[in-house]
Structures are given as C-alpha cells and as structure tokens.
C-alpha cells in the first residue's frame, strides 16, 4: 500500500516545516492537491495520515484532498488545455489519453501529476487569560 509511504512523506515534510515555521494554534486541516494522474486511494491516504499523525502536533488534523485535473501542452501545434479521457462502461476510472486533442501527437503534462501540501487550517489559540 503506497498510500502509507506517501502519507509518511507528507507528514514528515509538514512536521519539518512546522518546526521551522510554528503556527499560533492547533492545525485542524491539511490541504493537499492531488493530480488526476496520481493513482491512489484517497480513503487509504487519509487513514494512513490519521494513523501516522497520532501523537504528533498534527494529531486529529483532517487531510483535505483537492483533485487537480490533467492539463496538457502540445509542442507541435501549440494546443494547451484539458486532456482527453478514455471511458468505458464498467471501468472504475477514466484513463487519460496523453496525445493532443487537435493534432494527435504526444503532449507534455503541465498539471495532474502533483501531490503537494498547499495550505493549513489552523485554530488559533487565544493569548488572553480567561476571566
């Protein structure tokens, strides 16, 4: 299950970042962008993150995943835009076609391969004493 190692990498990077850039409160959400070409179970990634973050300052933080669509650029004809997909009845997912929708030649992927932390949701702690 590679979701476990991906969650471990995300968590390690985030903990390193938080050591250097402390936040004024409890991290409640970790926002991640996941490209459509990254094949993984979002449920398994969230579960692995939850298990691995237990006992850390990220314990209880929710992993929020935003899907990033495939966008391509054709070096031959200049097309830049959404990729095309092959979809068949009964398939569990659409398969991206990495050829240009205009000229049919190979394309460069400009988005859709990423897995990156893009933000944190922090519940700020009050510095004022309670009355």
Plain-language structure description:
It is built from 2 helices and 8 strands, in the order αβαβββββββ. The mean pLDDT is 90. It has helices at residues 2-20, 42-53; strands at 25-35, 62-68, 71-73, 80-82, 84-86, 95-97, 108-111, 115-124. The protein is elongated and about 55 Å long. It is of the alpha+beta class. The chain has a 3-stranded mixed sheet, covered by helices on one side.
**Secondary-structure element pattern, one letter each:** HEHEEEEEEE
Q: What is the gyration radius calculated from CA atoms?
A: 19 Å
Residues in β-strands, percent = 25-35%
Strand order, largest beta sheet: 2-1-8
Number of strands: 8
Query: What's the mean pLDDT score?
Result: 90
Distance between the termini: 50 Å
The assigned structural class equals alpha+beta
Backbone shape: elongated
Topology:
Layout: H1 2-20, E1 25-35, H2 42-53, E2 62-68, E3 71-73, E4 80-82, E5 84-86, E6 95-97, E7 108-111, E8 115-124
Parallel strand pairs: 1-2
Antiparallel strand pairs: 1-8, 3-4, 3-7, 5-6
Summarize the structure.
The chain has 131 residues and is of the alpha+beta class.
Please name the defining characteristics of this protein:
single chain, 131 residues, alpha+beta, three-stranded mixed beta sheet
């Amino acid at each position: 299950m590679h979701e476990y190692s991906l969650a471990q990498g995300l968590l390690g990077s985030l903990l390193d970042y938080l050591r250097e850039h402390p936040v004024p409160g409890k991290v409640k959400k970790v926002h991640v962008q996941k490209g459509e070409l990254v094949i993984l179970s979002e449920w398994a990634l969230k579960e692995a993150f939850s298990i691995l973050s237990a006992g850390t300052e990220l314990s209880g933080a929710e992993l929020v995943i935003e899907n990033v669509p495939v966008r391509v650029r054709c070096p031959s004809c200049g097309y830049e835009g959404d990729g095309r997909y092959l979809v068949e009845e009964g398939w569990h997912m659409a398969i991206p076609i990495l050829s240009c929708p205009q000229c049919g030649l190979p394309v460069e992927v400009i988005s859709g391969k990423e897995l990156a932390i893009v933000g944190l949701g922090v519940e700020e702690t009050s510095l004022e004493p309670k009355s």
